[in-house]
Amino acid sequence: MGRRRSDTLHASEDAATDRLPCRRRCLRHRHHRRRRRRRRRRRRRRRRRWLSVSAAPPTSPDAVQVARTPSASQRRPRTSPAPRERLPASATASMARKVAEVTAPEGGGGGDGLGPRWQLWRRRRFVLASLAFWGLVSMYSTRINFSVAIVAMTSGSGACHRAALPANASAAANASANASAHAGECSERGEFDWDSRTQGLLLSGFFYGYLASQMPAGWLVARAGAAALLGAGIAGSALLTLLGPVAARVGGAPLLLATRIISGLLQGVVFPCLNAIWARWAPPLERSRLATTVASGCNVGTVIVLPLSGLLAAHVGWPSIFYVFGAGGVLWWALWWAQTADSPERDRRVSEKERRFIEEALGVDTATAKVSFHPWRSFFTSPAYLGKLVAHFCANWGFYTLVTQMPMYLKDTLGFDLRAAGFVSALPYVVMALLLQVAGHTADWLERRQLLNTTHVRKLFLCGAFVLQAGCLLLSTALLDPTAVVACLTLGVALEAFAYAVICVNTLDMAPLHASVLAGVSSTIANTSGILSPQLTGFIVRNKSAAEWRIVFYVTSGLYLLGATAFGIFGSAERQPWAEDGLIPAGDPPAPAPAPADADAKKPSRRDAGHDNAAADVAV
């Protein structure tokens, strides 16, 4: 039966009625999309205007007003609406730079005018950080590889008895159990027959030289240059590593010990030099990120060298351990020497935008000035610096106690075999290297977003890390499951990353121009814990019982809480009053000669003029 015409008309009207709301909805959505696009365009224009002002050289407010006043041909017609937000005419370049820093996206490079933030190779400060990272990887590879090499060099009478090492063999000596786990089973007949005392002396000789050179490093930086001195320290240590097999075969243990001590002397200047470099290269809102990126090279180098040294010793021979890592250090030095400079003003490859950005962020005086003397009395009477010293010592004590004594604790108390103990002992290095990146980026992000000021960020990270580390140690003494104990100890060591994110940069916060000397003194005092901690552990742990190890963990937890209290009360990231003592601004013109008191005074004769000129020369 056919459909009637009236039904068809009604159906078409209903369909049109149904389509009408959909049409209106589409128009409404299109309208909102256009509004969103207009807002995004306005935001992009506003941001480009801010960045262009921040990249421009500082000018007077009058010049800014003239530059922003459009000509008659450039003025907008009166019908066009004015922009909603504009910088006031009295805004200076420094104010615009601060706005750009606050509104900059996460990651490096916001506000420096060098393109997208992921193009790190365009920014010389990040190139410098990557080279310094690999420098620390090379430095730690030449430091730790000897712990593995000595296992393969010596006969079974000394190398296989790790417990016979003296208690004061410091960090590398206590890591020998970890090294032997990667090197495989000890050889019954090594090339050298050295007893445990000789081995302990060879292992600890590096650290005696390392402690001796850190305090003079600040004085050497001012005369040799931070970049050149850092490269010479790592390259010299690498050359001595290359000579290690020859020294051992020609001169025996005494000559090898001399190379180890000299290697420690050379590497002791590295961290003070890094502080001097960041004092002139790192903007305040990027200090934590750059410093922690470089510091993670220590952990990465340790993780790489332990298994690789074991493989080289097993398949090629123990001399290859010295040759491979020594050659790597020399190759790194060639890149460092060709690519780096002490400051942006001396770097030929730095762009003008980046140089201006760094100088404005640091202040021209800090970026280019020199230091004539260091206020030593002010250093040791400053509560902020003393609080940092206590925190640094406590951090190193806990690190050396946990990392260097962990193989012995796992083997003797928890029943791990030597190979498993070596693997577990490497876990904290891996986790700490990852957390260092998290800590540095998070600290800079909190400062950039102005959620916390710099002092609050430093105290939150260091005190929070110390309290959590103490809690992990105390919890490990109450647990019975070995896996849970290992997890607590690994987390306790890894949380040290947040503390080191503060320790690496706190001297730069307080006094950038004295940072190398402050870091050298702090490192010297803090690294004495590498000798004292094994001695105290050896004195307490005599029967290798769980009760004795609990005492060791209680002492370490107490020192963590002491460091948190000292830094929480006295610590500061503010510029100290003595930070400018000894400052010599670069390029200061000599003071002009004073004008004569009487303008109508008689002009001096030629003989008097010569006398006065000589006196003026003496005065200048």
Automatic annotation (TrEMBL):
Q: Where is the composition biased (Basic residues)?
A: 30-50
Q: Which ranges does the record mark as transmembrane?
A: 126-146, 201-221, 228-248, 254-278, 290-314, 320-338, 379-400, 420-439, 460-478, 484-505, 551-573
Q: Could you give a single Gene Ontology term from the biological process aspect?
A: monoatomic anion transport
Pull one GO CC term from this UniProt entry.
basolateral plasma membrane
**Keyword Iron-sulfur assigned:** no
What is its subcellular localisation?
A: Basolateral cell membrane; Cytoplasmic vesicle, Secretory vesicle membrane; Cytoplasmic vesicle, Secretory vesicle, Synaptic vesicle membrane; Lysosome membrane
Q: Domain (Major facilitator superfamily (MFS) profile): give its ranges.
A: 127-575
Q: Could you tell me which Pfam families the record lists for this protein? A: MFS_1
Q: Which UniProt keywords apply?
A: Cell membrane, Cytoplasmic vesicle, Glycoprotein, Lysosome, Membrane, Symport, Synapse, Transmembrane, Transmembrane helix, Transport
Return the protein name: Sialin
Q: List the catalytic activities from the record.
A: N-acetyl-L-aspartyl-L-glutamate(out) = N-acetyl-L-aspartyl-L-glutamate(in); D-glucuronate(out) + H(+)(out) = D-glucuronate(in) + H(+)(in); 2 nitrate(out) + H(+)(out) = 2 nitrate(in) + H(+)(in); L-glutamate(out) = L-glutamate(in)
What organism is recorded for this protein?
A: Gryllus longicercus
Q: How does it sit in the membrane?
A: Multi-pass membrane protein
